[in-house]
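re the bet — no i am not wrong, look at it urself. input seq straight from the record:
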Amino acid sequence: MGQEDAGNWWGVCCLADPDGSAPFPPWQDGSRQRPPHKKKTVSFSSMPNDRKINSTAACISLMLEGCELKKVRSNSRMYSRFFVLDADMRSVRWEPSKKDSEKAKIEIKSVKEVRVGKKTPVLRSNGLSDQFPDECAFSIIYGDNYESLDLVASSADVVSAWVMGLRYLVSYGKHSPEAPGTGHPSLRTSWISSVFDLADLEKSGRIPVSRAVQLIKALNPGMKTSTIELKFKELQKASERPGTEVACDLFVEAYCELCTRPEIFFLLVQFSSNKEYLGVKDLLMFLEVEQGMEGVTEEKCLEIVSKYEPSKEGREKGYLAIDGFTRYLLSADCSIFDPQHRKVCQDMAQPLSHYYISSAHSACLLEDNFWGRSDISGYISALGLGCRSIELVLWDGPEGEPVVYTSPSAASCVPFRAVVGLIDQHAFTASAYPLILCLVVRCSAPQQRLAAQCLRKTLGEKLYLEPPNPVASYLPSPEELKGRILIKGKKLPPSCEDSEGEVSDEEEGWELARRLGQEEREAPEGGGLRRVRLSRELSELVSLCQAVPFQDFESSRRGQRYWEMCSFSEVEAGRFANECPAELVSYNKRFLSRIYPSPMRIDASNMNPQDFWKCGCQMVAMNYQTPGLMMDLNAGWFRQNGACGYVLRPAIMREEVSYFSANAKDSLPGVPAQLLHLKVISGQNLPKPKGSGAKGEVVEPYVCAEIHGIPADCAEHRTKTALQSGDNPIFDESLEFQINLPELAVLRFVVLDDDYIGDEFIAQYTIPFECLQPGYRHVPLQSLAGEPLPHATLFVHVAITDRRGGGKGHRRGLAGRRGRRVREYTSTKATGIKAIDEVFRTATQPLREATDLRENVQNALVSFKELCGLTPAANMKQCILTVSTWLLHSDSAPSVTLNLAEQYPPMEARGPIPDLLRKVLTAYETMIQTSRTLIESADAVYGKLIQAQQAGMDFHKELHRIETKEGLRGRKLQKALESFAWNITVLKVRGEGCAHTPALPCPALPCPALPCPALPCSATLLPPP
C-alpha cells in the first residue's frame, strides 16, 4: 500500500450538507438520504475542509446526517453501508441490509463501549490487519452478550466524530449538548464573552475587526493574522453582517472555530464526566491512566487548574475546560522530555572513561575548514551548549605569541591568549564538570613556553596538575574533578632531563599544515611516526590525559596506563568499529579515546557519532558550526543528564566482564527488547521551509520518525502526507519501533514538506529514548540549526512496553497468533575449555525457567488487555477502568469484586455474567496466577543463576593461564573470551530480572488512590487494610 493509498484507501466519504452551518439537520422526521458521491481526490482527510468538528454538537450533527462506513463481518469481508443516527437519537441504523429494518439497528442504551482502533478479534484477524490503518477502525460493543459491530471509516476524523458522539449519547442519552448561542452559556462561552466585554472599551456591544484579530492572536500565539482575518470575513459573509466591527456572538463563534483543536477536544470528552470540562477527579484519572504519573493528588490537580484554566469561574470551581486543557498540554509541565533529565540525574562518581563526553573540533570556526572564518564567539557557543572537550591547534604567531589557526585563510587565526581568557570566563557557566583542552602543538618550543605560562597564569587553580595515582586502575570521576580543567597533550619521557625534547606526533592537524605551506618535514622512512619538539613547561601541564600513539589492542591491554589516551582518525576508528568492535568496546572500558573528523571533510561536515558511541568511544569531536542530522544527534544526546556534557555509558559497556556486540543486528543476550508505540497525531504552527517563498502559503508536511542507535535499532517510519492542511495538519498515524538497547537509542522527529522536486526541511527535534515521557505530549520543534521554532509543535502519544514473547515486533500491532510463536531461549555458549563449560552448563535449565516465567506473565498480560479491547501498550488501570465501564452500562447489572486487600488481588463475579466478561475474568485469573508463580519461583531461579555466574567468575582471574594451558591462540582464543563474556552477561541479566520481580503481580495495578467515581456502584473496590 503506497503512501497516498494508505491515507486515502477508502476513497471519498459520503457526507451530506458539507457546510455544517446548522448544529442539527433541518429534518425531524427521521428520513435518511444518501448524499451524492464527491469526486475522488488525492487527500488524506475525507472530512470537508470547511467543516470542523470542534464540539459534541458537531459530532452528533454528522451522525444525524449519516455517512458511509464499511461494516466488517466475522469472515473478514467488508461491506459498504450507510450509517445514520435516528432523529430521536435513540438508535444507530444502517442500510441496505438483508435484515428487517428494525433489526438493522443498535439501540444507544444497549451500547457498552465504543473502541477506537483494531481492538476486537475480528479487526485483529490476519486477513484484515494490513487492509486499513488502525486509526480508521472502531467498534461498538453492545447487548448483554457484548457483541461487536466492527466498522471502518474513510478517515480518523470520521472515526473521532462517531466515537465522540456515541460516547456522549451513551453517557447522556438524547439530551442535546450545548452549542454556543443556545440555551445556557457554557463555561467556555462565558469566558470568551467576558474577554470580549473587556475589549469592548466603548461598551457598544461591538469591537473593531482589527482589535478582535489581535485579541484572538494574543490568546493563541502562533496563529497567523491572515488566518484570523479570513475567518471573520467568512463568518460576516455567512451571517450577512459585513463591516469593520464584530458583535460578541460572532467573536465567540470565530474563537471556537479557530482555537478548538479537535484532537484535544476528543481527548477531553473521553475523560470528562460532563463532556465540557475536566473536574478534579477527571483530571486525576487522565494524569494517572494516560500520562503515567504516580502519586497524583487532588491538590496537584487543583494547582494545574489554577495555573492553566483561563476562566475565573473554572478556577474557582476546579474545572479545566478545553482552553485550559490545551494550555496545559502545550506547557513545559507536559513536555515529551522527562523533567528529571533536565538536571544531573546520573551517577557522576564513576571513572571518567565510563562517560560519553561532549567534544568539539575547531570550535572557533564559523564556516568550512578551508576558507572558514574564525571567531572567538565559537568557543562561547560550544561551552554554552555544555561542550566539555575543546581542541586547540597551536601555531607560531606573527608577533612572537602563539595563535590558533583553523584554516589556510590568513584572517582565520585567533590569539591563543584571548582564547584562554575566554575559556577561563565561560568554562563552567553551563556545566561544573571537568573541561578537557586538547592541545595539538604545531608551534616552536619558545612559543610553547609562552602558551604554558599563559595557561598557568590565566587558569590558575582550575588547572589540574596533580600526578596520576600509580596504584589506581581507573581515572578519577567527574564528581572528583568538578571545576577543574585538564590538559590533553604529549608528555616528555621520564628519561628526558632537558628543557625540551622530541616526542612522537599525531596525524591530527597535518592536513591543515600542508595547506598552510608550513609542513616541510616528511614522514620518516619506513612509515614511522613523525617526531616534534616539546617544551618541558607545556609537558608538565599534562597529567590525566597524556596523548600516546595507538599500536594495537593487545599492546594497550598489556602496557597502556589508565591516564594515557589515544586519538583516532574517523577512518581508523571506523575500521576498528567494523572489523573488531568487541575489542574497541573492551578498550574503552578503561581508557579514554578521542575520535576526530577526517581531514577530507573540508566542508566541516560531521561524522555520525553513533558509529563510535556504540563502541564506547567517549570523545567524538564534532564541528559545532555545521548543523544537520549529526549535530542533531549530538545535541539531543547530551541534552540528557542536565546537559552537563557527560552521559554515563550503558552498564553493558562498563562492566569488566560483559558481552556486547556493537554491530548486533538483533536483540542483545539476555536483554529484553522494548517496543516504542508512537502515534503522531497532529502538527501546530508549522513554518514554511526556509527559502521556499515561491511556493506561496501551501505546506504539505509529513513526519519522519527515526531511531538511531545500535544497528539492530536503527529504523525509520514516516506518516502520510497531509495535503492542503495549512499550518495545523492532522496525521493520526501509529508507528512502532523495537528497541534492543534503550540506553543508546535516540528518537528524532523530522518534519518535511512533500515536494515533487525534493522534500524540504521544515523542523526537527531529537530526544534520547531514556528521556521520553509516556502519554499525550507536545514535541517542541527546532530549526536546522537547533534553535527553537516559536509555537511550532507536534502532538504525539507515547507508550513503551516490553516485547511480547519471543517473536519480533511488527510496525503495526502485536496481535499475532500466539500459537504460531516459537519461544526463543537464550543459552550459554561453549568456550572450548571443559571445566568452564561444565560450570555454565548447570545454568541451562534455570535460564529456560527464567524465560518461561517472564514470558508467561507477558503473554497473560497481553491476552487480558486484548480481551478488554486494549492494545499491549495499555496499563492495568486502563483495563480496570474499561471493565468498570462495561458494568456501568449493563442492564443486567452484573457484580464484580476486586479485592486489593489480598496479596494477589482476585477479581470475582457475583451472580451470572456475560460470556465475554467471564473470559475477561478468566484471563485476569491467568495473569494473576502466572505472576504469582513468577514471584514465588524468582528467588530459587535467581539463586541458581547467580551461583553459576559466581562459579564462572572464579575462573576469570585465572582465565589467561587456563587459555595458555589449553593451547588456545588466535581466533580460538578470541572466540573463547567472547563466549565467556556472553555467558557471564546472560546469567547476570537474567538473574537481575528475577531479583527485580515486583512485590505485586503487576506494579500498574490500580491503587486505592484510583478515583472511586470511575468504578460503578455495581463493582466493588475493597481497599487494603
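see?? The CA atoms of residues 138 and 585 lie 49 Å apart. told u. also The radius of gyration is 33 Å. so pay up
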